[in-house]
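FIELD: query
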Amino acid sequence: MNTYEHVLFLKKLFKHIGISEDRIQQYFCSAAEVEKFIAAVDDITKKVEKLPPLPKKKINSELE
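FIELD: result
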């Protein structure tokens, strides 16, 4: 399984347990792409700030 397939799997898993699949993100930046890295971090930060808190009780009760 490659990284892209792992991300797809995690998105499906999150959706199945009731967590927004927007919490899983994948970006690729080489070491020479500083501007692209900064833009990716800004994008992730904006998306995370918009997400509701995780439903802790729901997740914990499913694990027990």
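FIELD: remark
Residues 3-63 form one domain.
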